[in-house]
Amino acid sequence: MNPLPGPPPLILGSTSAYRRELLARLRLPFEVASPGIDEAPLTDEGPLIRARRLALAKAAAVAASRPDAVVIGSDQVAVCKGTVLDKPGNATNCREQLQRLSGNSAEFHTAVTVVWSARQRLEAFEDLTIVHFRTLDADTIERYIAAEQPFDCAGGFRSESLGVSLFERVVSDDATGLVGLPLIRLAAVLRSFGYALP
């Protein structure tokens, strides 16, 4: 008697170390692949629409060469007072983003697409996390930037580290959504694809 086949290979279509660390929490074996897509925003594209488009594009790009695998694509777009906050890249941009966030709230729109091309399956979902920031004076911002140099994080802070000290409160259905991969809903999707999770 042939043994039952195991679950398909699982691939995270992302170069983000933060998403990789989050997915590792589920204790499933997975590979990482760079989707290699153009992430430039389109004209008049809202933050959630952009996140959805890029999550699908990332998953589809990797799935095109690995139809046997279940591929996860995810994207997050942050917005504060109508301005999208991309990864700052340097201290000057980071300072400007934190000044904008000071005393305000920001919305973090995260979209996830899970594709299994061999079975023609696609699941997509979104998460919205709202972060309310305390008033940040210039010294606080400078101390924080010097301590973490969070230049690769949208909004210019790391919520999973010292950046949480900048918050007043967070409104979310999933604590992992703010980091960029909402695990509660993702775990449910992966269970539906046949992966053994508690």
What topology does this entry show?
Elements: E1 10-12, H1 17-24, E2 31-32, H2 47-63, E3 70-80, E4 83-85, H3 91-101, E5 105-116, E6 121-133, H4 138-148, E7 167-171, H5 183-192
Walk me through the structure:
The chain contains five helices and seven strands. The longest helix is centred in the first third of the chain and has 17 residues, at 47-63. The protein is elongated, with a radius of gyration of 18 Å. The two termini are 28 Å apart. It is an alpha/beta fold and 198 residues long. The model has no long low-confidence stretch (mean pLDDT 94). The protein has a single domain (10-192), classed as Maf protein, CATH 3.90.950.10. The protein has helices at 17-24, 47-63, 91-101, 138-148, 183-192; strands at 10-12, 31-32, 70-80, 83-85, 105-116, 121-133, 167-171. Strands 1, 2, 3, 4, 5, 6 and 7 form a seven-stranded mixed β-sheet that branches.
Primary descriptors:
198 residues, alpha/beta, Maf protein, seven-stranded mixed sheet, 7 strands, elongated
Offer a quick outline of the entry:
This protein is of the alpha/beta class and 198 residues long.
Order of helices and strands: EHEHEEHEEHEH
Structure class: alpha/beta
CATH class descriptor = Alpha Beta
- Strands, count: 7
Outline, from the CA principal axes? elongated
Helix count, per DSSP? 5
